[in-house]
Amino acid sequence: MKFTKMHGIGNDYVYMDCTKERLENPGEIARLVSDRHKGIGSDGLILIQSSEEADFEMAMYNADGSYGKMCGNGIRCVAKYVYDNGLTDQTEISVISGGAVKYLKLTVEDGKVQKVRVNMGEPILKPDEIPVVGEGDKLVAAPIVVDNQVYEMTCVSMGNPHAVVFMNGVDDLKIEEIGPKFERHERFPDRVNTEFVERMDHKNLKMRVWERGSGETMACGTGACATAVAAILNGYAEREVTVHLLGGDLEICWDETDNCVYMTGPAATAFTGEFDPEELRKSVQGR
Ligand SMILES: N[C@H](CCC[C@H](N)C(=O)O)C(=O)O
């Protein structure tokens, strides 16, 4: 099976062209390829599929094999993949993921996509649509007790659930301890992606993320969008911000005119390769 390894500011996935043939067991393949010692090594698997409702479909799976309805860094790489590999010659394309169509604008230099601007759609704030257990029409700086400590969270869905926690000293946060406790907290019926954010100023936010199904990643596109929305709802930032992540920066704008969130950032191809699923299974699982 052929694959292409790509990343959006360090949030790396294995990409497979399934426009002609669907993959049968994507969850298992995601777990196998993601193993950073015995597999290929990635935050998960992203399939590019044909679609009746958009130019292409993205099917994203986290490293634990769970399906993710949306992936911001991933969709930028899907755009790069389809253009660089000649599946389209358009620099404005649509990609459906998790039932929602996103519109992308590609910046091409030397015949290859370098940067992509994505209309990520409107943020979802109603608790039961995120989903998160909570009262009212949105949760902004709402208390949650995790590991006997009270945190204030702002909850946003960008097609996938996010809990945004503002704090000082994110560099020193022991995210591997607190991240899983948020991810599997009882208030999140579908688990949650959690962003720990330090406000640098009204146009700059520093963010680390513990992703549902993948753990700490170098970057999270939907998380950066959720972070910008949360910062604006809390009065911490203007509508155009730069989110600084471990792997790089994303430019986010929550547009007042159409209520949509726009994310602009790079996409990179690392290498291509092939694997035999049976051999890979033996390598990772020892049988
Ligand atoms: N872990 C996420 C999916 C990947 C999101 C992230 N990598 C991005 O760039 O948006 C979830 O289960 O909802």
From TrEMBL:
Sites marked Could be important to modulate the pK values of the two catalytic cysteine residues: 162, 211
Annotated positions binding substrate: 11, 62, 72-73, 160, 193, 211-212, 221-222
Compartments where located: Cytoplasm
Cellular component terms per the entry's GO annotation: cytosol
Key words of the record: Amino-acid biosynthesis, Cytoplasm, Isomerase, Lysine biosynthesis
E.C. number(s) listed in UniProt: 5.1.1.7
Pathway(s) the chain acts in: Amino-acid biosynthesis; L-lysine biosynthesis via DAP pathway; DL-2,6-diaminopimelate from LL-2,6-diaminopimelate: step 1/1
Family: Belongs to the diaminopimelate epimerase family.
Organism: Anaerosacchariphilus hominis
InterPro entries per UniProt: DAP_epimerase_AS (IPR018510), DAP_epimerase_DapF (IPR001653)
Function: Catalyzes the stereoinversion of LL-2,6-diaminopimelate (L,L-DAP) to meso-diaminopimelate (meso-DAP), a precursor of L-lysine and an essential component of the bacterial peptidoglycan.
Gene: dapF
Catalytic activity, as annotated: (2S,6S)-2,6-diaminopimelate = meso-2,6-diaminopimelate
Molecular function terms, GO-annotated: diaminopimelate epimerase activity
Pfam families hit by this protein: DAP_epimerase (PF01678)
Primary localisation category: cytoplasm
Self-association state and partner proteins as the record states: Homodimer.
The protein, known as: Diaminopimelate epimerase
